[in-house]
## 1
Amino acid sequence: MKKQLPFELIYQISALMISIILVHLVYVTLIRPNADAILQQQAELAASGEPFVQDRSLYVVLRDYEQESCFILMFWAIAIMGLKTRAAMGERRLLNEDFIQISEGMSILPEDTREFTRSLQALPDDARESLLPRTLLAALHRFSSTRNVQDVSEAVKSVCDSESDRLDSELSMVRYIAWAIPSIGFIGTVRGIGEALGQAYRAVEGDIAGVTTSLGVAFNSTFIALVISIVLMFLMHQLQLIQERLVLDTHNYCDQRLLRHLQVRS
């Protein structure tokens, strides 16, 4: 697991930089130019005194810096979750492998564990560090040393619980991002309301364009942030479901393929 930390750190930093570049590029080349053109057109119509219906354009809703920051964080979190989903699915494929090759009705004695241990230790490093081989190795080592099936069951449970805690702790950054996105939206709300209050004197004089624009910043930023937060929380819970099923299926694999075959001679 220690070998994966530098890779994950580099991956997360790279994903953040790519997200910043791509989202900012879309904003500079597409969203803000169109939003500015629409706002300019609406300002000219308002100045002319002609009645018009103000359309709610998606470009205008997305144009501010708070929304841009929310999208950057969303794509960063999706990239992190994508890496963890790929890792979980790769480990899940190992559940289809028959690491404990034993016929139905046969038993595994403490003296037999060395043979199964050697086959597991001969696996490639990436496969051997996965959850299922680590759990099987821990169980076989415990059975060889204690000759107690109950101790083996406790060893399997301990490894699975530790893995579940590790997977949960590694989602802390995604949880922080999911919390930060609505907070950025509320920052936009405060900024917009503050700008609207600063232009209240112009509204008294009959010019409400500045006030409405500032209030649009306030409500649009919160709206986009909450929508992104809903999407992100859904994806995060799907990832947690995949990881929890991986741990549970690993525990069941050990029960069905190993524990029920263990036997101690009296």
## 2
Amino acid sequence: MILSRRALIAATALALPTTLALGTPARADSKLTERAIGKAEAPVTVMEFFSLTCPHCAAFSRDTLPQVIEQLVNTGKLRYVFRDFPLDQVALTAAVVARSLPPERYEPFVSALLASQNRWAFARGVNTTEELAKMSGLAGLSRKAFDTTIADTSLRDAILADQEDAEKTLKIDSTPTFIFNGPNAKDRRAPGELSYNEFAKLVSEATGT
């Protein structure tokens, strides 16, 4: 069952103040720094608000994101920022684990989780914690480190605080939602599972080309 953000917050400790949200720059804790791919000077930046248990996010990651990375990120046209927006406790735990890996392993691990969503998140009778432990082990996180990670309530609270801030300031209410910023666009949103052509058109419009 999908839980609301309020239910998630009630199920965990109180969220950190908004000034400590993940979306703010220059965090001392590397787990809370921005997770992004692409050149900082790229003319367009897109933020994807996603949940690791969202089937539409998984489909976008599988069908569209590889082409986005190849044709837009790797060519210097786009900077791609990942923003956690967990829809349930399972997604929240997975987000905590992903952010506990070294930053360079974040995107590959998130892609692997989305690609195998049916196995670790939705399979009948599956123990999601044990499945996450196995996958994080393959990514280099020991079982001891994994257990410490999922008990890190401060990281959970920070993710929830950032989610709450995105809801209030950017009106995010579904996943995936994309926000484009460029010379010709500011906070232009596009919800849903975009095709590559739809995504590329929005990038082009954001640059004014």
## 3
Amino acid sequence: MATLRDIKRRIVGVKNTQKITKAMKMVATAKLRRAQQKIISARPYAGKISEMLLHLVSEEDIASNYLLKPRDVSNLCVVVVTADRGLCGAFNTNIIKEAVRHINEETQTGEVKAKLVTVGKKATDYFSRRNYEVIAKNVGLFSSLQINSALQIYNEVLTRFNKEEFDKVVVIYNQFVSMVQQKITVEQVLPIPIKTNSKEVKSDSENYIFEPDQKSILNYLLPKQLKSQFWKFLLESNAAELGARMTAMDNATTNAQELIRSLNITYNKERQASITKEILEIVSGANALKASS
């Protein structure tokens, strides 16, 4: 049975842990506001480029442009985006589970081989230690997230795609929904998925005048669309990670408070039992002295 000193020591330890979790929650909350503002600002840009491409792309472009033309998939590239650190609930675990599920589903027939590009220390450590072909590792990007980080991944993926090292690229990441909610998303980035069968888009495109010409604008916008997508993936994951960490640290702080309350009750019970025992010993001793005299 734990002594009063052990219980007191544990209460002090839990209180110190509670201070840490509370501080981490406050830091995550402060960073989340900035990250949330960045992703809110980036979404319209990425969305507008995708909308413009709908007006520019034709069936002929999809059949001829190497960034749009579908390929028979024999090599699949999976970009897995996790965090560099833990203490954010099931954020990393859920992404890794979804990546493993997706890879197994795509490669179960044996006709498709999967190659991985990992973003974040958690994904890098997990897949590097197991029987997966990791062709590029990106660690430490989220400590000071910059557009160059997205361009680094973009250049790596696009160069290998041009060399036909793989035929399809998907990104698995956590999409930021709200401060307390994240959504695991699997999104194809190459070949760029564009639907051109919308009658509204075709009718609207007839009202545009393109300068210098439609194909030149398309070739100019496609790389920009890819860069904005990779930048958006990192921003989404960063904001989602901070939201998950804020929630996890808030829960940890609340749980620590409950544990402290429970330990205080146990401490008081043990203290009362100890005092009662001492009183009984004193009374028993006094009665024994009276009886002997």
